[in-house]
Amino acid sequence: MFTGIVEELGEVTAVENLGDASRFRLRGPVVTEGARHGDSIAVNGVCLTVVDHEDGEFTADVMAETLKRSSLGALAVGSRVNLERPMAVGERLGGHIVQGHVDGTGEVLARTPSENWEIVKISLPADLTRYVVEKGSITVDGISLTVVEAGSDHFTVSLIPTTLDLTTLGRKQPGDPVNLEVDVIAKYVERLLGAQGADR
Protein backbone atom coordinates (compact mmCIF):
# COMPACT_ATOMS: atom_id res chain seq x y z
CA MET A 1 0.00 0.00 0.00
CA PHE A 2 1.16 3.52 -0.83
CA THR A 3 0.14 7.00 0.27
CA GLY A 4 0.53 9.03 -2.92
CA ILE A 5 3.31 11.14 -1.41
CA VAL A 6 6.04 11.00 -4.05
CA GLU A 7 9.48 10.39 -2.55
CA GLU A 8 11.60 10.99 -5.60
CA LEU A 9 11.50 12.15 -9.20
CA GLY A 10 13.29 9.33 -10.98
CA GLU A 11 14.30 8.70 -14.58
CA VAL A 12 14.00 5.84 -17.05
CA THR A 13 17.53 4.80 -18.06
CA ALA A 14 16.74 1.77 -20.25
CA VAL A 15 13.76 0.01 -21.83
CA GLU A 16 14.00 -3.57 -23.09
CA ASN A 17 11.23 -5.08 -25.23
CA LEU A 18 10.56 -8.65 -24.09
CA GLY A 19 7.79 -9.37 -26.60
CA ASP A 20 4.78 -9.71 -24.31
CA ALA A 21 6.36 -7.47 -21.66
CA SER A 22 8.96 -4.75 -21.16
CA ARG A 23 11.80 -4.45 -18.70
CA PHE A 24 12.47 -0.96 -17.37
CA ARG A 25 15.61 0.25 -15.66
CA LEU A 26 14.98 3.31 -13.53
CA ARG A 27 17.23 5.63 -11.57
CA GLY A 28 16.04 6.29 -8.03
CA PRO A 29 18.73 6.39 -5.34
CA VAL A 30 16.24 7.26 -2.58
CA VAL A 31 13.77 4.45 -3.24
CA THR A 32 16.49 1.85 -3.88
CA GLU A 33 18.20 2.47 -0.55
CA GLY A 34 17.74 -0.76 1.35
CA ALA A 35 15.69 -2.28 -1.48
CA ARG A 36 15.63 -6.04 -1.98
CA HIS A 37 14.64 -8.34 -4.81
CA GLY A 38 10.84 -8.65 -4.79
CA ASP A 39 10.15 -5.33 -3.07
CA SER A 40 7.45 -3.05 -4.45
CA ILE A 41 8.00 0.45 -5.80
CA ALA A 42 5.27 2.61 -7.31
CA VAL A 43 6.27 4.09 -10.68
CA ASN A 44 3.86 6.82 -11.78
CA GLY A 45 1.31 5.18 -9.54
CA VAL A 46 1.82 1.62 -10.83
CA CYS A 47 3.01 -0.90 -8.26
CA LEU A 48 6.03 -2.71 -9.77
CA THR A 49 8.29 -5.42 -8.38
CA VAL A 50 12.02 -4.89 -8.07
CA VAL A 51 13.91 -7.50 -10.13
CA ASP A 52 17.38 -6.25 -9.24
CA HIS A 53 19.10 -3.05 -8.19
CA GLU A 54 22.55 -1.51 -8.03
CA ASP A 55 24.14 1.93 -7.98
CA GLY A 56 20.88 3.73 -7.30
CA GLU A 57 19.00 2.04 -10.16
CA PHE A 58 16.49 -0.81 -10.27
CA THR A 59 14.82 -2.92 -12.93
CA ALA A 60 11.19 -3.97 -13.10
CA ASP A 61 9.25 -6.11 -15.54
CA VAL A 62 5.94 -4.75 -16.86
CA MET A 63 3.52 -7.15 -18.54
CA ALA A 64 1.54 -6.26 -21.65
CA GLU A 65 -1.72 -5.84 -19.70
CA THR A 66 -0.14 -3.14 -17.51
CA LEU A 67 1.41 -1.41 -20.51
CA LYS A 68 -2.02 -1.36 -22.19
CA ARG A 69 -3.98 -0.14 -19.18
CA SER A 70 -1.52 2.49 -17.95
CA SER A 71 0.66 5.22 -19.39
CA LEU A 72 3.85 3.21 -18.75
CA GLY A 73 3.84 2.10 -22.38
CA ALA A 74 4.59 5.71 -23.37
CA LEU A 75 7.77 5.85 -21.28
CA ALA A 76 11.13 6.07 -23.04
CA VAL A 77 14.74 6.53 -22.01
CA GLY A 78 14.98 9.92 -20.31
CA SER A 79 11.34 10.01 -19.16
CA ARG A 80 10.90 11.32 -15.63
CA VAL A 81 8.77 9.26 -13.26
CA ASN A 82 7.28 9.60 -9.79
CA LEU A 83 8.66 7.02 -7.35
CA GLU A 84 7.36 5.90 -3.97
CA ARG A 85 8.13 2.99 -1.68
CA PRO A 86 5.27 1.24 0.16
CA MET A 87 4.16 2.76 3.45
CA ALA A 88 5.69 1.11 6.50
CA VAL A 89 3.29 -0.03 9.22
CA GLY A 90 3.02 2.60 11.95
CA GLU A 91 4.02 5.55 9.76
CA ARG A 92 1.82 8.57 9.06
CA LEU A 93 -0.62 8.31 6.17
CA GLY A 94 0.23 11.64 4.57
CA GLY A 95 -1.91 11.29 1.46
CA HIS A 96 -4.65 8.66 1.18
CA ILE A 97 -4.83 4.89 0.69
CA VAL A 98 -3.26 4.12 -2.70
CA GLN A 99 -3.00 0.56 -3.97
CA GLY A 100 -0.83 1.13 -7.03
CA HIS A 101 -3.54 -0.47 -9.20
CA VAL A 102 -4.32 1.93 -12.03
CA ASP A 103 -8.04 2.22 -12.87
CA GLY A 104 -7.53 4.02 -16.17
CA THR A 105 -5.70 6.80 -17.91
CA GLY A 106 -6.58 10.43 -18.45
CA GLU A 107 -5.06 13.20 -20.50
CA VAL A 108 -3.90 16.62 -19.42
CA LEU A 109 -6.36 19.00 -21.07
CA ALA A 110 -5.21 22.39 -19.82
CA ARG A 111 -2.98 24.19 -17.36
CA THR A 112 -3.98 27.50 -15.78
CA PRO A 113 -1.14 29.14 -13.86
CA SER A 114 -1.71 31.46 -10.92
CA GLU A 115 0.68 33.42 -8.75
CA ASN A 116 1.20 30.67 -6.18
CA TRP A 117 -0.40 27.56 -7.65
CA GLU A 118 -1.59 26.02 -10.90
CA ILE A 119 -4.90 24.46 -11.90
CA VAL A 120 -4.58 21.36 -14.08
CA LYS A 121 -7.59 19.98 -15.97
CA ILE A 122 -7.52 16.24 -16.72
CA SER A 123 -9.89 14.10 -18.79
CA LEU A 124 -11.81 11.39 -16.96
CA PRO A 125 -12.93 8.06 -18.48
CA ALA A 126 -16.71 7.63 -18.32
CA ASP A 127 -16.51 4.49 -16.18
CA LEU A 128 -14.62 6.34 -13.44
CA THR A 129 -16.82 9.44 -13.23
CA ARG A 130 -19.00 8.08 -10.43
CA TYR A 131 -15.99 7.64 -8.14
CA VAL A 132 -14.69 11.20 -8.42
CA VAL A 133 -16.26 13.86 -6.19
CA GLU A 134 -15.45 17.45 -5.37
CA LYS A 135 -12.95 17.64 -2.48
CA GLY A 136 -12.43 13.88 -2.71
CA SER A 137 -9.11 12.12 -3.25
CA ILE A 138 -7.67 10.89 -6.54
CA THR A 139 -4.25 9.59 -7.52
CA VAL A 140 -2.69 11.08 -10.66
CA ASP A 141 0.59 9.46 -11.77
CA GLY A 142 0.99 8.22 -8.21
CA ILE A 143 0.35 11.62 -6.59
CA SER A 144 -2.36 11.93 -3.95
CA LEU A 145 -4.42 14.98 -4.91
CA THR A 146 -7.66 16.66 -3.91
CA VAL A 147 -10.30 17.12 -6.60
CA VAL A 148 -11.23 20.78 -7.04
CA GLU A 149 -13.95 20.36 -9.68
CA ALA A 150 -15.58 17.08 -10.74
CA GLY A 151 -17.14 17.30 -14.19
CA SER A 152 -18.90 14.66 -16.28
CA ASP A 153 -15.80 13.96 -18.37
CA HIS A 154 -12.99 15.76 -16.54
CA PHE A 155 -11.74 16.94 -13.18
CA THR A 156 -9.35 19.62 -11.96
CA VAL A 157 -6.65 19.67 -9.31
CA SER A 158 -4.77 22.58 -7.79
CA LEU A 159 -1.01 22.12 -7.55
CA ILE A 160 1.23 23.90 -5.08
CA PRO A 161 4.83 24.83 -6.01
CA THR A 162 6.24 21.79 -4.17
CA THR A 163 4.14 19.41 -6.28
CA LEU A 164 5.09 21.27 -9.45
CA ASP A 165 8.79 21.12 -8.59
CA LEU A 166 9.06 17.57 -7.26
CA THR A 167 6.70 15.52 -9.47
CA THR A 168 6.02 14.86 -13.13
CA LEU A 169 2.92 17.06 -13.05
CA GLY A 170 5.18 20.09 -13.13
CA ARG A 171 6.29 18.96 -16.60
CA LYS A 172 3.18 17.39 -18.13
CA GLN A 173 1.66 19.33 -21.01
CA PRO A 174 -1.78 19.22 -22.67
CA GLY A 175 -2.06 15.94 -24.54
CA ASP A 176 0.19 14.01 -22.16
CA PRO A 177 -1.29 10.83 -20.61
CA VAL A 178 -1.52 10.28 -16.85
CA ASN A 179 -2.40 7.26 -14.72
CA LEU A 180 -5.52 7.51 -12.58
CA GLU A 181 -6.46 5.56 -9.47
CA VAL A 182 -9.74 6.45 -7.81
CA ASP A 183 -10.38 6.19 -4.08
CA VAL A 184 -10.61 2.47 -3.28
CA ILE A 185 -13.10 3.16 -0.48
CA ALA A 186 -15.63 4.41 -3.03
CA LYS A 187 -15.31 1.16 -4.99
CA TYR A 188 -15.82 -0.98 -1.90
CA VAL A 189 -18.87 1.04 -0.85
CA GLU A 190 -20.37 0.64 -4.33
CA ARG A 191 -19.81 -3.12 -4.27
CA LEU A 192 -21.26 -3.51 -0.78
CA LEU A 193 -24.35 -1.44 -1.59
CA GLY A 194 -24.85 -3.44 -4.77
CA ALA A 195 -24.66 -6.70 -2.85
CA GLN A 196 -27.06 -5.35 -0.25
CA GLY A 197 -29.56 -4.43 -2.95
CA ALA A 198 -29.27 -7.89 -4.52
CA ASP A 199 -30.13 -9.55 -1.19
CA ARG A 200 -33.42 -7.70 -0.85
Automatic annotation (TrEMBL):
One of its GO terms (molecular function) is riboflavin synthase activity. Homotrimer. Residues 1-96, 97-193 form the Lumazine-binding domain. PROSITE patterns: LUMAZINE_BIND. Lumazine-binding repeats lie at residues 1-96, 97-193. Its EC number is 2.5.1.9. The keyword Transferase applies. Keywords: Repeat, Riboflavin biosynthesis, Transferase. GO terms for biological process: riboflavin biosynthetic process. It comes from Streptomyces fructofermentans. This is Riboflavin synthase. NCBIfam families: PRK09289.1, PRK13020.1, ribE. Pathway: Cofactor biosynthesis; riboflavin biosynthesis; riboflavin from 2-hydroxy-3-oxobutyl phosphate and 5-amino-6-(D-ribitylamino)uracil: step 2/2. The keyword Repeat applies. Catalyzes the dismutation of two molecules of 6,7-dimethyl-8-ribityllumazine, resulting in the formation of riboflavin and 5-amino-6-(D-ribitylamino)uracil. PANTHER family: RIBOFLAVIN SYNTHASE, RIBOFLAVIN SYNTHASE ALPHA CHAIN. Pfam families: Lum_binding. It catalyses: 2 6,7-dimethyl-8-(1-D-ribityl)lumazine + H(+) = 5-amino-6-(D-ribitylamino)uracil + riboflavin.
